[in-house]
Amino acid sequence: MAIQRPKGTQDHLPDGSPKLGIDTRAAAFHFVRETARRILERAGAQFIDTPLFEEADLVKRGVGGSTDIVRKEMFTVYYFGDHGGYILRPEGTAGIVRAYLQNGLKQLPMPLKLWLHGPMFRAENVQKGRLRQFHQIDYEVLGSTDALVDAEAIALMVDVVRALGLKKVRVKLGSIGDPEDREAYNAYLRELFTPHLERLSDDSKDRLTRNPMRILDSKSEGDQKLIAELGVRPMLDFLGAEARAHFGQVQQYLNDWGVEYDIDPSIVRGLDYYRRTAWELHHEGVGAKSALGGGGRYDGLAEQLGGGAVAGIGWAFGIERLLLAMEADGAALPASTGPLLYIAALDEENVAYAAALAREARAYARAEFAYKAMKVGNAFKDAERRGAVWAALIGSDEVASGTLSLKNMETGEQAKVARAELEGFLAGNSSDVAHPPTS
Ligand code: AMP
């Protein structure tokens, strides 16, 4: 058998491919990225790109040594003579904060809004919607602790899913307070779970010493059963006065804007640098355990990476999960688009002339040409297979008179148009020319 792609990766394929799925359709990815770009850039976010691999230390400190990502799911990059100290990035935030610190971005007007899209890598157990190379859209805001920034970030996430046509989406909103609130909560959890140590999974035994809050996040059924039995009090009960006021403001802004959410006390982000607001977006079609995306405030991260104190908040969507949700919701996806104009020469000596016409037309429309002389029937068949709207056949008469004989492949309508009039003709007979596709 020919060599296969690695487990947990996908090819993103052109339209018409025999094995096309919603989450492998390149045009659908492009559509999601473009939709997000429009919404985020209108809100003042600028695009940033960072390397696909980073220092191992950045990932360990940025994601947290007690997380599954760092303990089990990192892809280490080796190359000849190297110590293997690089990691394929599992998420976007740490790299963005590193780039902010390294490139002096604090000189830009604050709050600084950035966005990124690209592949992320985690060596997870592969399932539907859980891949080893997946793709995220990230939005990060640096330089402000204002609750208005938090509310705007959440609202923008909702704007993106609405623009994609998703309906069955819920925002689950929580707060994990300030570091001292979390210490108090962790102390409470330690006391609560220690007498039941033997019932915890091995991972959670470890969490009990390192970071008890992460037990609540456990995927083990036994752990979840114990959590339910013990009637664990939520983090929200432990918020201090400032964190409580901040959380109240975030909710107030969301209420003002009509952004719906459910308060979910089970949202925990157990890492040291997370502060206050944390949330997830869920969709019925993708399953309860699999969020479409999540976000949180991380005011302690820049210091964790060795920089000065920089407030930050951000979120990430998984594009594959957005696409699965769009399919489940029957949301409209971009139609596949063939050429507006397809030009074929009927004689070998006119092939280059037809190609020149198509190249000229590309100034205002999608235009393709046949690479060989075609018989009339074959030319129309080829135009149809490629999804062309107008087909033009070029014979010696058309060359001599400087005209095109056009046929509309959808209606059968025919027209003879002078070469110089082609742009005007196509504009009058198609919405595509007036609104050329953007790249
Ligand atoms: P996280 O960085 O873990 O909060 O993930 C943010 C979003 O990325 C999730 O809500 C998913 O939509 C997506 N995501 C995370 N891990 C995977 C994965 N292994 N496969 C596909 N999507 C993922």
From TrEMBL:
The Aminoacyl-transfer RNA synthetases class-II family profile domain, residue ranges: 32-334
Similarity field: Belongs to the class-II aminoacyl-tRNA synthetase family.
Location of the protein in the cell: Cytoplasm
Keywords for this protein: Aminoacyl-tRNA synthetase, ATP-binding, Cytoplasm, Ligase, Nucleotide-binding, Protein biosynthesis
Pfam families: HGTP_anticodon, tRNA-synt_His
EC number: 6.1.1.21
Stored NCBIfam families: hisS (TIGR00442)
CDD domains reported in the protein's UniProt record: HisRS-like_core (cd00773)
A GO molecular-function descriptor: ligase activity
Enzyme category, top tier: ligase
Known partners and oligomeric status: Homodimer.
Name of the protein this chain belongs to: Histidine--tRNA ligase
Catalytic activity annotation: tRNA(His) + L-histidine + ATP = L-histidyl-tRNA(His) + AMP + diphosphate + H(+)
Superkingdom of the organism of origin: Bacteria
Main location class: cytoplasm
